[in-house]
Amino acid sequence: MDNQITQPKIMIQRIALMALAILLVLVLGIFAVRIVRASDPYVKTVLSLTGDPIQGHAIFQINCAGCHGWEADGRVGPSLQGVSKRKSPYGLIHQVISGDTPPMPKFQPSAKEMADLLSYLQTL
Predict the structure, then answer these.
(1) Rounded mean pLDDT of the chain?
(2) H-run or E-run covering 40
(3) Segments of 3-117 assigned E as strands
(4) Which of 12, 20, 67, 117 has the highest count of CB atoms within 10 angstroms of its CB?
């Protein structure tokens, strides 16, 4: 009879321990990704610069407005209004330079141009 009572307790403890282990792995994984992103020399340089939102708007008009709309309100590509609230600076940089989300082309701005573009995107 004691064996039947202790088995559910052991099962609950194992499930709780497994959930804790999974949570720990997720947190460490997120932390590791942030460290790797922050160690990228291009990203470090971009984030160390102060961007000019007016220049960033001009860069946007030349390179991005054709798909994202003249005022970043969407066209072929999605609206970018409030994008800096949805994506981190690392995520925005990756989105712009990677070309991982077709049909968005890979765009390779200089570090200063990227800082300007980020500054503009933060105004949306």
Answers:
(1) 88
(2) none
(3) none
(4) 117
- DSSP structure string for 81-108: TTHHHHS-HHHHHHHHHH--STTSPP--
How much of the chain is in helix, strand and coil states, percent to nearest 5?
70, 0, 30
In Å, how far from its chain's centre is CA 94?
A: 7
**From its phi and psi, is residue 84 left (phi > 0), alpha (psi between -120 and 50) or beta?**
alpha
Record the pTM. 0.69
109 conformational bin, left if phi > 0, alpha if psi -120 to 50, beta if neither? beta
* Least-confidence region, from 6-15, 18-27, 101-110: 6-15
CB 51 within 8 Å of CB 116: yes
pLDDT tens string 14-47: 888 898 889 888 888 877 776 666 678 999 999 9
